[in-house]
Design brief:
This protein is α/β, with parallel strands linked by helices. The chain is about 40% helix and about 15% strand. The protein is built from eleven helices and eight strands. The protein is globular, with a radius of gyration of 17 Å. The protein binds orotidine-5'-monophosphate (OMP). The site of orotidine-5'-monophosphate has 18 residues, from strand 8 and helix 10. It is an enzyme of class 4 (lyase).
Length: about 240
């Protein structure tokens, strides 16, 4: 169950990320997400090393470009052995298809899973309609993106916990729903807009939670991590681990 909570390692440098991971010494290795802040400074070899040490890795690069460029980028990442990779659903069907083919072509023992970002959890209804220019509700947009992302070959989506049940209805139970924008009760929402608690996200069908600052900025990160794991464990939802 602890691998259902993915820790966003949003740190500026390798050394800081390593110091943070030292808190887990002697504990089971957590599922870690490396975003581009850390990736750009620490580099691909840092990821390969963590993978060798046994960390499950979610590389969050949110690729969004013409199909050929995304495919070539994925080919370059192929040898790192990452478990999850993000691409933007708004790149369209052919971009996602090209990403899938590249992920298959570079797969070792296990193929990386491609997660299509639907609408960022920092986007609210008004921003979607007035700034981004997409009509309709956030839920409608997210479930439409999830449907075409599934048809194009994505393994799942990134969405907020607010849309997760609708995404599962629009796709299938095995299509992954990975939800950032998680805030335990009483925690500061910061720049996030569509937030839910860990329990609500899992109850509504999320497969994985992505949690950054509520753990990384905690005075006791391991305790904060386990508090979230316990909150979802209490729901008694069965996952195949
Ligand atoms: O792709 C992501 O992981 C992502 C998508 C999204 O819509 N919203 C979102 O917050 N994220 C990431 O999830 C993490 C959330 O961090 P906290 O807000 O600190 O919990 C960050 O690393 C974001 O980059």
């Amino acid at each position: 169950m602890h691998n259902r909570v993915i820790i966003a390692l949003d740190f500026p440098a390798a050394q800081m990320a390593e110091q943070f991971l030292d808190h887990w010494r002697g504990e089971q290795k957590p599922f870690i997400k490396v975003g581009y802040q850390l990736f750009y400074s620490a580099g691909p070899q840092w990821i390969a090393k963590r993978k060798e040490e046994g960390y499950p890795i979610f590389l969050d690069l949110k690729l969004h470009d013409i199909p050929n460029t995304v495919a070539k980028g994925i080919e370059s990442l192929g040898r790192l052995g990452i478990d999850f990779l993000t691409i933007h659903a708004s790149g369209g069907r052919t971009m996602i298809e090209a990403a899938r083919l590249a992920a298959e072509a570079t797969a070792g023992r296990e193929r990386m899973k491609l997660l299509a970002v639907t609408q960022l959890t920092s986007t609210d209804q008004q921003m979607l309609n007035e700034e981004i220019g997409i009509p309709g509700t956030v839920e409608e947009c997210v479930s439409r993106y999830a449907q075409f992302a599934q048809k194009a070959g994505a393994d799942g989506v990134i969405c907020s916990g607010q849309e997760v049940s609708r995404v599962k209805q629009a796709t299938s139970p095995s299509f992954l729903a990975v939800t950032p924008g998680i805030r335990p009760l009483g925690k500061d929402v910061q720049d996030q807009k569509r937030v839910v608690t860990p329990a609500r996200a899992i109850r509504d069908g999320a497969d994985y939670l992505v949690v950054g600052r509520p753990i990384t900025r905690s005075a006791d990160p391991v305790k904060s991590f386990w508090a979230i794991v316990e909150e979802i464990q209490q729901l008694g939802v069965g996952f195949d681990e």
